[in-house]
Amino acid sequence: MVFRLSLATLIALYPFIVFLGIDVLPPGIIGLILALLLLVRFGLVRPGERVATLPVGVILVAYAVGTALTGSTLLLLFYPVVVNAIFLVLFAASLLDDEPLLLRIIRARGTVVSPIGVIYLRRLTAIWAGFFLINGAIAAWTTTADLRVWTLYNGLISYLVVAALILGELLFRRHYKKRHDISDE
């Protein structure tokens, strides 16, 4: 548990690793470090979750390996863009199915979801898709800005926006459940 949390923290701190390491290490070495962190991270995925996370893991590890092999600073900076693009595709594409991604996740946990809950989760999935679109676009823009701007946005501001979105959704959900007389699902 502690190891998984430490690993997740290191991956989340990637922008700061780039910021602090870019003057000390060649970009290829930083890409290699990212590839190794991701390999270990996806290697620790629980067996039941491997099928669902394997495509994302393969794409991210391949991207990091490509970055390591090319030694491209620009590819280092585009990693947050790639992550947002992957999540955008996952969330947006699931809206074309009967069960959007968040509904699938909730049902996989064995939770029964009411018809109103299904509508709510579809809308929430769309909101997250929109977030990943906007966040990815801003992350792409930061690759053209100063490294400090890139680090500040991708290493702090984007995480604060995610936290605000989650908190806002939790508060809205309470209001929504009361308004529609829904018990906890």
Task: Please summarize what this structure is.
This protein has 185 residues and is mainly alpha-helical. The chain has helices spanning 2-12, 14-21, 27-43, 47-70, 73-94, 101-108, 115-142, 147-179. It has two domains: 1-71, no CATH class; 80-185, no CATH class.
What would you note in describing this structure?
This protein folds into 2 domains: 1-71, no CATH class; 80-185, no CATH class. Helix content is 82%, strand content 0%. It has 8 helices and no strands. Helix 2 (14-21) runs antiparallel to helix 8, helix 3 (27-43) runs antiparallel to helix 4 and helix 4 (47-70) runs antiparallel to helix 5 (73-94). The longest helix has 33 residues, at 147-179. The model has no long low-confidence stretch (mean pLDDT 92).
List keywords for this structure.
185 residues; mainly alpha; 8 helices; globular
SSE blueprint and pairings:
Blueprint: H1 2-12, H2 14-21, H3 27-43, H4 47-70, H5 73-94, H6 101-108, H7 115-142, H8 147-179
